[in-house]
Amino acid sequence: MGVTINDVAALAGVSRATAARVLAGYGYVSEEARQKVYEAARQLGYRPHSIAQSMVTGRTKTIGLVVGDIENPFFAKMARGVSDTIIHEGYNLIVCSTNENPIDERSAIDGLCRKKVDGLIIAPASRREHSHIDELIEHKFPVVLVDRVLDVAGVDMIAVTNVEGAFDAVKHLLERGYREIAFLSDSFEISSNVERFEGYKRALAEKGLPIREDYIRTGSYTVEAGYREAVSLLSGTVRPEAVFAANNFMTIGVLRAAKDMHIAIPGQLALVGFDEMDWLELVSPTITAIAQPVYELGQVAAQRLLRRIAGDMTRPEVIRLSTRLIPRESSGVNPVRTEEEIDEVR
Amino acid sequence: MGVTINDVAALAGVSRATAARVLAGYGYVSEEARQKVYEAARQLGYRPHSIAQSMVTGRTKTIGLVVGDIENPFFAKMARGVSDTIIHEGYNLIVCSTNENPIDERSAIDGLCRKKVDGLIIAPASRREHSHIDELIEHKFPVVLVDRVLDVAGVDMIAVTNVEGAFDAVKHLLERGYREIAFLSDSFEISSNVERFEGYKRALAEKGLPIREDYIRTGSYTVEAGYREAVSLLSGTVRPEAVFAANNFMTIGVLRAAKDMHIAIPGQLALVGFDEMDWLELVSPTITAIAQPVYELGQVAAQRLLRRIAGDMTRPEVIRLSTRLIPRESSGVNPVRTEEEIDEVR
C-alpha cells in the first residue's frame, strides 16, 4: 500500500485519530474534516476500506491454507478446490508452505492467525508436534484439518480412506502374484503415511506374509528423497518383486530409480502408486494408481470451514473420502511365478 | 475470526469507539477502560493487532499472486518461488486464480488491492484487456508482471525468452528432418503464446517454408482443450509430421491424442513441448522440451516487488530469463525422409 493514515492526515491537515475515525467509519468527526480526509485519501490512492472494515466486523474475508509444499501437484490441486469454493463467498486464499516442518508450520500459523484470516485449513506436518494447532482449537478459532488427521478432539478433519486405499493397492499386487512387496513413503511423522503403512501391513497379514524390515523405506517429502530411498531399496541383496509407493513424489522416485538402474517395469519390478497423476496413463508402461479425490478434499474442507466461520457449532466430524484403484500395466501379472504359485497367494 | 470489536466492547462494558481505540492503539482512553477491553479481548480470543497495525502503517505484509490457474504445475512452481522469497522478509502470499479471464482478473485485483496486499505479482490473462492493471500502475501501486508482458510502460516485467525458445524448438525439428510442423497453444490473448508463435514463424521463414493456416491451432488453457485441438489437427486431410506444443498442458493434450489415435511418437509424429515437466524423461519415448526457469521467474519477480514496496523508484525493467532446449526421443530423426532431403532442410 505504501500510503499510510499518517500521510492522509498530514495532507488533510487533521490529526491521525481524526483521519482514522473517518476512514474506519466510526466516532464523531466534523463534516469539513471528513471531506478533507476523503479528498486526501483519494489523491493519495489510500485504500484501507476493507482493513478498516475488518476492524469493525472482525472479518478479513480471507482463508489460510497451510500445506507441506505448494509445488506438489497434490496440494496445488487441493488449493484449487479450496479457492474455487471460497471465491463464490467473496473470500481470498492465503497459501503457506511449511516444508513439512512443524516449526515452519507453527510460524506460518502464528503469522496468519495474528494477522489476516478468518479461518485456517491445515494439512498438519507432524502427528506429534501440533501444540500450535491445539491452541487454535482451544481458542475456538475456525480450523479444518485436511489430508491428515491428528489425535485431538474438537476439530473437523477431511481425509481420504488411507488404510483401505493402501490395502487395495497391496492386495492387488498380491493377486497379481507378487509376494515380496516393499513400502516406500515419506516421513512417518505424517499421519497419512502411517495409515497407508497400516493398510500395507493388513494386506500382507491377511495372506500370512511377514513384514520385512528392509522393505520398509521412509525418507523426506521430495522426489529426490524418494529416488534415493528407491535406489537403496533396489540395490539391496534381496530385491523386492514389487513396490507400493505411498505418494505421487515417491512414485516418481521409483520410476526414476528403475530407469537409471535398468530395471524393467513390470517385468522385473511391479509398481503401484498412491495418488493419480495426469501422465500415469501416458507413460509406457502405464502406472497403476490409487486415485484420491484431491480437488474434492479441498472443496469439502472449504465448505466445512465456511460453515464454522459462519458460526456453525455442531459437533466436529472426521470425513473420509473414498479412494479408487486404477489397474494399469505397471502391476501386470508376475512373470516369474507359476499359475499355481499365484493361486496360492490369492 | 468470528469475535468482533462489538463483542469485545459488550463484554468490557464500553462503547465500540472506546474498544476500537484501545485495540488500534490510538486516542485517549482511561486506564480502567483499557484494562477491561484487554481482558475482554483476551477472554474472547480477539486477535486484531496486525489489522490495527496495518491501519497505522499502511502495510499488510502480504503479497498477492494473480495467475491463470494455480492447479497448473507451472504456476504452482512459480508460486513456490515467490513464497520462498518473501517468507524470509516476513511476508505471506495470497493466491488468486483467474481462469485466464480478464473479468475474473479484474475482480481478483480489485478485491486484493482494496483489501490486503502491499503489492501484486500478476501474470496478465489478456494482452488487450488490462485497464485494471494500467490503473494500478498509474496509482504507483507496487506491481510486477510475470511470465507475460503488456504493451505498457512503468512496470517491471519478468518473463522468459519466448521467441528464442520457440525458435530453438522449431529449428531443432527442422534439423531433424521435419518440415510439416504444426503449432498448438492456448489463446493468443496471452502474450507468451503470441511470442512463441513469432519464434515458430521465424524458424520456418529462415528456411523459406510457408506458414500453413490449418497447422496453427489455439484453444483454451486446459489439458482437455489441448486434447481436442490435437485430435482435430491430427485428423486433418494432411497430417503434420511434427507438433510444437507451446505449453505443458498442450504437450499433455498432444500425447493423449496421439495415444488414443494410435499415432506413434516419434515414428509417425514428432513432438517438442514448451516447459519441462517432472515426468518427460520417464515417458517412453522421452519428450523433447524447452525448459524454462519457472521457480526463478517467481523468485526474481518477488525480489523485484519487495524492492518496489521498499520504495525503489528506479526505472522499471523488462527482464528475460533464458530457456534451454532438452533434446530427447520424441524428436528423433524423421524416418520418412532421406539423408539428402534432411540435409536440404538443414
Report on this structure:
The structure is a homodimer of 346-residue chains. Chain A starts with a helix and ends with a helix. Chain A has 346 residues and is of the alpha/beta class. Chain A has three domains: 5-57, lambda repressor-like DNA-binding domains (434 Repressor (Amino-terminal Domain), Orthogonal Bundle); 62-160 and 294-321, Rossmann fold; 162-292 and 325-345, Response regulator (Rossmann fold), CATH 3.40.50.2300. In chain A, strand 6, helix 9 (191-206) and strand 7 form a beta-alpha-beta unit. In chain A, the strands form two sheets. Chain A has a six-stranded parallel β-sheet with strand order 2-1-3-4-5-11, with helices on both faces. Mean pLDDT of chain A is 89; it is low at 48-56. Chain A has 13 helices and twelve strands. In chain A, helix 1 (5-12) packs across helix 2 and helix 2 packs across helix 3. The radius of gyration of chain A is 26 Å and the shape is elongated. The longest helix of chain A has 16 residues, at 191-206. Chain A has helices spanning 5-12, 16-24, 31-44, 49-57, 73-87, 102-115, 131-138, 162-175, 191-206, 223-234, 248-260, 294-309, 339-345, and strands spanning 62-67, 92-97, 119-122, 143-146, 156-160, 181-185, 216-218, 242-245, 270-274, 288-291, 318-321, 324-326.
